[in-house]
Amino acid sequence: xxxxxxxxxxxxxxxxxxxxxxxxxxxxxxxxxxxxxxxxxxxxxxxxxxxxxxxxxxxxxxxxxxxxxxxxxxxxxxxxxxxxxxxxxxxxxxxxxxxxxxxxxxxxxxxxxxxxxxxxxxxxxxxxxxxxxxxxxxxxxxxxxxxxxxxxxxxxxxxxxxxxxxxxxxxxxxxxxxxxxxxxxxxxxxxxxxxxxxxxxxxxxxxxxxxxxxxxxxxxxxxxxxxxxxxxxxxxxxxxxxxxxxxxxxxxxxxxxxxxxxxxxxxxxxxxxxxxxxxxxxxxxxxxxxxxxxxxxxxxxxxxxxxxxxxxxxxxxxxxxxxxxxxxxxxxxxxxxxxxxxxxxxxxxxxxxxxxxxxxxxxxxxxxxxxxxxxxxxxxxxxxxxxxxxxxxxxxxxxxxxxxxxxxxxxxxxxxxxxxxxxxxxxxxxxxxxxxxxxxxxxxxxxxxxxxxxxxxxxxxxxxxxxxxxxxxxxxxxxxxxxxxxxxxxxxxxxxxxxxxxxxxxxxxxxxxxxxxxxxxxx
Amino acid sequence: xxxxxxxxxxxxxxxxxxxxxxxxxxxxxxxxxxxxxxxxxxxxxxxxxxxxxxxxxxxxxxxxxxxxxxxxxxxxxxxxxxxxxxxxxxxxxxxxxxxxxxxxxxxxxxxxxxxxxxxxxxxxxxxxxxxxxxxxxxxxxxxxxxxxxxxxxxxxxx
Amino acid sequence: xxxxxxxxxxxxxxxxxxxxxxxxxxxxxxxxxxxxxxxxxxxxxxxxxxxxxxxxxxxxxxxxxxxxxxxxxxxxxxxxxxxxxxxxxxxxxxxxxxxxxxxxxxxxxxxxxxxxxxxxxxxxxxxxxxxxxxxxxxxxxxxxxxxxxxxxxxxxxxxxxxxxxxxxxxxxxxxxxxxxxxxxxxxxxxxxxxxxxxxxxxxxxxxxxxxxxxxxxxxxxxxxxxxxxxxxxxxxxxxxxxxxxxxxxxxxxxxxxxxxxxxxxxxxxxxxxxxxxxxxxxxxxxxxxxxxxxxxxxxxxxxxxxxxxxxxxxxxxxxxxxxxxxxxxxxxxxxxxxxxxxxxxxxxxxxxxxxxxxxxxxxxxxxxxxxxxxxxxxxxxxxxxxxxxxxxxxxxxxxxxxxxxxxxxxxxxxxxxxxxxxxxxxxxxxxxxxxxxxxxxxxxxxxxxxxxxxxxxxxxxxxxxxxxxxxxxxxxxxxxxxxxxxxxxxxxxxxxxxxxxxxxxxxxxxxxxxxxxxxxxxxxxxxxxxxxxxxxxxxxxxxxxxxxxxxxxxxxxxxxxxxxxxxxxxxxxxxxxxxxxxxxxxxxxxxxxxxxxxxxxxxxxxxxxxxxxxxxxxxxxxxxxxxxxxxxxxxxxxxxxxxxxxxxxxxxxxxxxxxxxxxxxxxxxxxxxxxxxxxxxxxxxxxxxxxxxxxxxxxxxxxxxxxxxxxxxxxxxxxxxxxxxxxxxxxxxxxxxxxxxxxxxxxxxxxxxxxxxxxxxxxxxxxx
Lengths: 523, 158, 768
Description:
The structure holds three protein chains of three kinds. By secondary structure, chain A is an alpha+beta fold. Chain A has helices at 13-20, 23-28, 119-123, 125-149, 175-193, 246-253, 267-274, 290-293, 312-317, 319-324, 326-331, 338-343, 346-351, 359-365, 383-386, 461-467, 474-487, 498-517; strands spanning 2-9, 33-40, 43-52, 55-69, 73-82, 87-100, 105-118, 239-241, 260-263, 282-285, 296-298, 304-307, 369-374, 377-382, 387-389, 392-393, 400-406, 412-419, 430-439, 442-451, 458-459.
């Protein structure tokens, strides 16, 4: 994955260079990096700790400054090894400093090539990608802020000039060339890090050294306890506790340990645990709370109160849901497979924060609110406000989704369109949920929500404003689609590029609205 | 943590020690039941389908500890009396499998489908079985087998 | 308690067996979940293995620290490549090249390559320990693309190490500093003259993506040391090769290595040659304990893939639309280890010009090493990649000439009696009949609904062919016990394709008994005779012939024994009575054997041979697709498949093979693609590698058998497991062009690619 960008700092170029050249400063701009240790002037080690939702990652990082050409350019390579799982994070970062505003200010033009291999690379790529993007943005923010808030540090290291490695002419416009160039850079690093190695282009290196095992005569001998019979002990061990009241559950979940998690249907959590990225110390099994948090009930004002522990299957079969919010009933069969629906619960599903889920946009368009129970009491949150980023919600440690409240849908109709691009049972590449209140063909009110193509469930207020008070025509539907495509930021991933997803939004949002033109269509 | 759990397995009470990290498929192996088998490991292929308290679940996503006190049925329960279940017979009669690795999962799901919908149409069948994958792609024959099984069950009941 | 109902002998004549569709022999076991897979097996003292894999695409191993893993309770051994070298001094294996180390030595060549293995009491402990291993590498420049690999300065293998078994690879021995594992060339006529004299010349480049077989039973092997012997239970398509190769690695005679294969949960080429067997064999011998290695679904993606390819095809056409010359340049991205890639490059390469009658042909086919997971055989042995190109181009040419695509094909197709590019004369190949049938069934000449609004409809057709991998050997043994019951021993592996049942039908037909009475012995190299491998749709013809010979041999011996006893074998008789008469009691065994090697003539330096294959396999597809012109979404409204498989032994199983292979290729056409970043597969799981489900099969799918008797074949039958894959991808691309007028050159045909092409054609490209 590659990131490119440009941002301006209100300081002259040599000043900016001096600051960036100070590893302490550099690191202070990167969220989660600590323990910076200098090996020599060009090499450092550090620890990177980052968190995605409740999952903590820790990497041991090695930083090599490959080039420092005052005052114009810094090239660094970062290599990280995650703790507790097999993997490798490699980042090649290039920053070019360009004069702006007649030399009073500086543009930092940067390129980062981030590669993630091993378990995290095979399974966590979209999540890690989103995280890397977030770190990139954080860096820009912090670095810019530093120059506004502080005077240049007087003790910044003097710029050292290094000869340019041969052929390191940056080409920004063409990725292919950039890759080749980075490959050449990588070669330089390898040679520097291990000067004993001949250039591999000769292909003759045979001195690669493998550390001999402890017993040089043969394989190393295991020293750990032999374990036979019963269940083996591993570092995966955790406690499963089953409280019998919501208050007890919240008590057991509270604290600041993210390895303590609520466990309801467990389908998402099991995947995280099986992939080795999440190792809980305690799971709080909520299945004992069904009397408090289970079931679906009609509310006095014609809405629905759905317990957080309601299974998705129950939601699909419930007669009140079918009567009041049939858009849910229709979506359920394709929302996940039968077995997952028999296990997964509404609360857990909403708290997961994966934008590729169908229920959050549907509930958001139904104007649903999540009732969140936590150590600080209970609060209500409109569903679309629950999500703040990829796998990121406003839920804090100790909080669970106790209920979902859906207001009366009288005179409202809703449509959900799920678009997949590979197979029928794939994750959506786009989910579009629209609720509208029409009077004689005129839109009085609406909720327009998209997901999956975006980093999070996104309500499109612009589109709602566009169609408000207007008669829903084919032309208006088309315009609404166009506006939506313009208004949202889409994400590139294995299902398609950001540009394609904008097309999907444009077309499918238009189609979702068109469904309202045909009388009585409620899907 | 390791814990002794007790549950009902194919109509017999059983007890076993399980680790917190283990799943239902791991536990069933300990009882020499291999009909539910882990393939994709993500609950997407259905090879590990079991019934827990009367509902089909993915064994690979079911925490072993959660079986404590439950009633568990595996494909091996279907012909416990030596007689094939009508669903199994229909899969044979329609040639609805090739390598057979996914077959117990399809059989278990079909069994449950026909309990709720004794006479399903094509779309109901597809919708119900969309979470079961067959890499040999014997889907056309599986559709026929489900309908044949429905007929067999109806005939037997008549 | 219900009594198990064993099939009872029903007198001497049981009626015809071949050409009927009895249920599979193992049907009961499979529907009850009781079929034996290696997956199910445990033995006393067994250790579970977990592999620690490379995180760099190309690098030199600087160090491997296993100390923390060794200290974990429950861990018995942690082995690296150097430990394997203590046991096997030259621990490199492979069917074509001895290039793949049991565990990485000195270098790693792709992300996911096995670097170390943990042996522990419990699989979770083994996995836990593997996470504690730390390896350091010095990075080397990687090469991923097959075209770049032709000239890259990054060299995956410093020296080529062809296996001695193939004489045509000898010239590569010791060749240095190249990524070209094999360059195959064929020349026929004068292709340059054809281009010079042509009315029109067409030149295109087509590409295919990396995909994976993903058998639902992930690869699994178990090795059990038994004093001076080694028993390997493995989910393998080639037990005979496993025995041969493990014996070679260990320097043991073959009879000390026993390879057993129970049922297989799918293969499709993924479980061919050696996959995990060398590692478990070495680990078990070092640990002196049984070792079982079960891959996860994710790990399968690091083990074997289908070759991505680039195919440059240049075609000369005369004024009437006859193809007069064709140059095919195919680049096969073989990944880090050759596996069977060089054979794919060559044995499929020579069919690259397609089933067309072309006087002037030149083929260059290159097997390339890259820093990707190894590529091997996948249902079609490279043929679907080739048909994708030549059948896409057939439509491009037809359209450019203003001809009907079906007419263009009719004009150029090979007929029996005409030479194919190798010079081998076509025979028993129903190419025309196969094409005509799918054209007729789709209603090619009839008008159809072209769609309304944003949805447009189109039709496409395509045909491909394949030679059998030749020459290869199969041996079969039919035994008759003294009670007259019959067993068949073969090392052919029934991985779901139904070979056990089909072979039993042959035996039953010859011996005049019912198929269900035949016991087929699972492959066990101690008991079942040699079979080259279960691949390339070779078993029906090769093993089938051997089985027929063995059954006839057994019958001849039985009849001779009957005549000796004064019983007239023609008049019907009790088999047990013959044994009793001969041995004085119910005793003895009749053993019938059969060995089959087809006739074959090796090719000359220009790739010419009078007999390059014993038979041809033909498959054609016609489709009707709907294209949503606003989103690029496709819907396959109708799909008609037809194959020439000779006379079908078991029509129902054949039909299942046709629809199954077609649906698998449909996945490779529309949805399946391994994505890579920095050499890492980024979608190594079913949540992001999407195979077809029950909703993804075409709304209407017909699967037809062209019954064209294959001479020299057992009851006229030939292989069928791959044929319906051939036409799928190009027929869909052709239908897309028919519907919306755009051409796609690269698989898979995703909605985004379709939409981009539509928008490009409309002069309104997508803004990135």
